[in-house]
Amino acid sequence: MFQLAAEKGASSWLTALPLKNYGYLLNKQQFSDAIALRYNLTLKDCPKLCACGEPYSANHALTCKLGGYVSLRHNSLRDSLANIMRTVNCKDVQTEPILLPVNGMQLPRGTITGDQARLDVSARSVWNALERAFFDVRVFHAPAPTNATKPIPAMYLAHENEKKRAYNARVIEVEKGTFTPLVFSTSGGMGVEAQRLIKRLAQKMEGPTGQRYSDSVSYIRKRLRFEVLKTTVISLRGDRGPRLRTHPVLIQELDLNLEPYG
Q1: What is the percent of the chain with per-residue pLDDT over 70, rounded to a whole number?
Q2: Which candidate, 65, 166, 169, 89, places its Cα nearest to that of 120?
Q3: Gyration radius of the chain's alpha carbons
Q4: In the beta sheet, which residues pair with residue 139?
Q5: How many CB atoms lie within 10 A of CB 52?
Q6: pTM for the structure as a whole
Q7: Is the distance from CB of 123 to CB of 133 less than 8 angstroms?
Q8: Nearest Cα to 62, choosing from 153, 4, 143, 136?
Q9: Does 48 or 178 have the greater pLDDT score?
Q10: Interhelix angle 69-87/213-237, nearest 10 degrees
């Protein structure tokens, strides 16, 4: 956990001023939970069981799909990235663009070829003026069983390569564009490809806004870090509905007398 907390950008929320206009705000509970996650401390006043029936823990809460918090974390980050691209004057910024149909084109094994396949964000004027660039976001939880045995750099690389196997060839051959997987962790780190995009967006921000490059990089890192952090701590205590029954409902347990008494 300490290695994850030491990643570049993971600690940026601790030094940020609590500016509401920038979204740099946490309430007392969220701040306490964020500190507990950072130092692997026990969360206080949490249920013993998740609504899905599994024993509750921070690691489980950050990977449990019940309640939609995994999607919330992903979508919030996707929308923030799209908004930043618009801010720095990228053109034709779209979220969830539908890819062009493959129409029988032979693509490498493992490529997603469905007609309604989508990526998270597309934009022009990111890497060059006219070329359309596509991006797909993933936020993973490092202590999850599928990640825990890997070194930290290998976690990011594995997720980036998985995205590239699925979409890179299709984007290059069919869309004639570029594809960049954007991989982040719940602890605040990010993969090499995401770091490259942040530097590029900071360069573009430097011109129209007059901000220094270093300040632009810091702003983008903090904004994305807070998006991941807030959606992460929300998932720890967010409502997931009533706890699921552990056994099927039997017909003899039901009261089928729907007529009022008397």
Answers
A1: 91
A2: 166
A3: 22
A4: 184
A5: 15
A6: 0.87
A7: yes
A8: 143
A9: 178
A10: 160
Which of 23, 36, 15 is closest to 187 using CA atoms? Answer: 36
Q: Using alpha carbons, list the distances in angstroms from residue 180 to 45, 53, 131.
A: 40, 37, 13
* Order of strands across the sheet that contains 178-185: 91-95, 121-124, 132-140, 178-185
β-strand partners of 100:
none
Residue with tokens 């954007």: 182
| Mean local confidence (pLDDT), 22-38 | 91
Own/partner contacts of 96-102, CB < 8 Å, gap of 24 or more, are 96/120, 97/121, 97/122, 97/134, 99/170, 99/171, 99/174, 99/175, 100/174, 100/175, 101/174, 102/170, 102/174
Q: What local confidence, expressed as pLDDT, does residue 40 receive? A: 85
Mean per-residue pLDDT for 185-189?
Answer: 92
Q: Amino acid identity, residue 223?
A: R
Per residue, what are the HEC states of the chain? CHHHHCCCCCCHHHHCCCCHHHCCCCCHHHHHHHHHHHCCCCCCCCCCECCCCCECCHHHHCCCCCCCHHHHHHHHHHHHHHHHHHHCCCEEEEECCECCCCCCCCCCCCCCCCCCCECCEEEECCCCCCCEEEEEEEEECCCCCCCCCCCHHHHHHHHHHHHHHHHHHHHHHHHCCEEEEEEEECCCCECHHHHHHHHHHHHHHHHHHCCCHHHHHHHHHHHHHHHHHHHHHHHHHCCCCCCCCCCCCCHHHCCCCCCCCC
The Cα 114–Cα 218 span in angstroms is: 38
From its phi and psi, is residue 119 left (phi > 0), alpha (psi between -120 and 50) or beta? Answer: beta
